Amino acid sequence: MTDTSLAARGVALDLLRDVLRKSVPFDDAFDAHPELAALQPRDRGFVRLLVATVLRRLGQIDEMIQASLAKPGLPKAAIHDMLRLGTAQLVFLNTPAHAAVDTAVELAAARNAAPYKGLINAVLRRIGREGAEMAARQDAGRLNTPDWLWLSWRSAYGTARTRGIVEAHLHEAPLDITVKSDPEGWAERLGATLLPTGSLRRPTGGSVTELPGFEDGEWWIQDLAASLPAKLFGDLARKRVFDLCAAPGGKTAQLVVRGARVTAIDRSARRLERVTENLKRLRLEADVLAADATTWEPEEPADAVLLDAPCSATGAIRRHPDILRVKTPDDIAKLARAQSRLLARSVELVKPGGTLIYCTCSIQPEEGEVQIARLLEQDKRMERWPVTADELGGLSEPINEVGEVRSLPGMLADLGGIDGFFVARLRRRQG
Ligand SMILES: C[S@@+](CC[C@H](N)C(=O)[O-])C[C@H]1O[C@@H](n2cnc3c(N)ncnc32)[C@H](O)[C@@H]1O
Question: 112 and 211 share a domain?
């Protein structure tokens, strides 16, 4: 094994420990790893793919490891992680068997685990021989999904839709792009597909910043589902809009492009820097303000308010498989309480006759449908303004019976799928 590939696998081992045992979100662990900067871009890409594959396929991988151990009982955590990295390469990343096994054994030697070299060698050789057949017999979607999430989705959406969700999680999401203007022209220049809602779609891979139009600020990365809320305000020309949870600013940019005068608020000054940077690259202008939206007092209410609330992000598992491992039912309850406080405050920040859009990239009903049902029951100043399929380029599948957008991974499969998202559009009654 070359020094760089040993270093890359060592970094992957550390990242797996950070996510699985310290519940650090993968992107944060990745950005913070001290040895990552020294790796070649290709090795960095490999580390990302390798760890993401283990997280995406953890249930399957662990079942294969269990079945391949000579004695029952798992080895200690670091050895288990070395086996996981080896198995992901052997079964899901098409690494030649000798390379995957040898590198795992060398990693063990480099990490003071030489006594385990024999065990690692034996288990991975067996998985190299039998892994593909084992994988073909597994119920992949179910095995890779923690029980609490499986049960929550099955009770909210039924078994067939839950199957669609968990099967979609097995694959990485495509790269979606929102353009400032001329979607047809940019689709051609970027070699992308133009989706019915106006977003562009490309397969993932390659360097985004080297694509035409990036430097000139003609477009930004934004999932198809995430692009929907800002499109649902109706005419925004010269309207005053509060974007209450704005960072990193994808929706802020959309609102500005649509002609609104936007105040972009976020309580994280660090994340707000991303909004400022993104707006600068896109040559767009908004007032950017670090404040807590639950206590912020503007001079007057706005014509429209966007509340893209902090959430568990269980709708974005295709892009962030670590969510399967780091989120807990307690997180959902805590986030739901914060969302409900933000929602109550948002009502006060919108003028009578104005529009409030609430959205989250979660597929937990507690962070979506339940929030809106409770608000409408408690606050008679607000009413629903249902979303229609023609506002989504004719897509009716992600609209529920009361006119909320409820997208689920697994929907729009013929277009390449969509992240899970919830969007409710409300109006504050006059008077
Ligand atoms: C889902 S993200 C927003 C994504 C953003 N709207 C976009 O499209 O790029 C949620 C944001 O809410 C911010 N946030 C959480 N609690 C907040 C609060 N009480 N007031 C303002 N911002 C808050 C977080 O810092 C985070 O940046």
Answer: no
Query: Structurally, how many domains does the chain consist of?
Result: 2
Q: For the chain, how long is the longest CA-to-CA vector? A: 76
CATH code where residue 37 lies? 1.10.940.10
In a domain, 143, yes or no: no
Tokens of 59: 């249930």
Low-confidence ranges of the chain (pLDDT < 70): 1-4
Most ligand 1 atoms within 8 A of CB, residue of 255, 262, 266, 419 to mutate = 266
pLDDT digit string, tens, across residues 223-259: 999 999 999 999 999 999 999 999 999 999 999 999 9
Q: Are residues 133 and 215 in the same domain?
A: no
Looking at residue 381, its pLDDT comes to 97
- Same-domain pairing of 123 and 182: no
Ligand 1 pocket check for 267: Cβ under 6 Å: yes
- From the CA of 309, how far away is ligand 1's center (Å)? 6
pLDDT for the residue numbered 408: 98
Same domain, 132 and 195: no
Q: Is there a domain that residue 345 lies in?
A: yes
**What integer pLDDT is reported at residue 59 of this predicted model?**
98
Distance from the alpha carbon of residue 336 to the mean position of ligand 1, in angstroms: 14
| ipTM value | 0.99
Domain that holds residue 63: 3-138
**What does the pLDDT look like over 338-362, one tens digit per residue?**
999 999 999 999 999 999 999 999 9
Query: Which residue intervals of 286-328 are DSSP H helices?
Result: 323-326
C-alpha R_g of the chain: 23
Residue 311 known to be catalytic = no
- Residue 411 and residue 271 share a domain: yes
Q: Are 64 and 123 in contact (CB under 8 A)?
A: no
- Would you say residue 321 lies in a domain? yes
Of all atoms in ligand 1, which is nearest to the CA of residue 310? 10
In a domain, 164, yes or no: no
Q: Which two tokens stand for residue 275?
A: 């909004």
Give the dihedral sign, CA 213/219/222/223: negative
pLDDT in tens, 369-380: 999 999 999 999
DSSP secondary structure letter of residue 399? B
Is residue 247 within 6 Å of ligand 1 at its C-beta? yes
> Ligand 1 centre and the CA of 251: distance in Å?
11
**Closest ligand 1 atom number to CA of residue 275:** 9
Lookup result for tokens 């090795």? 43
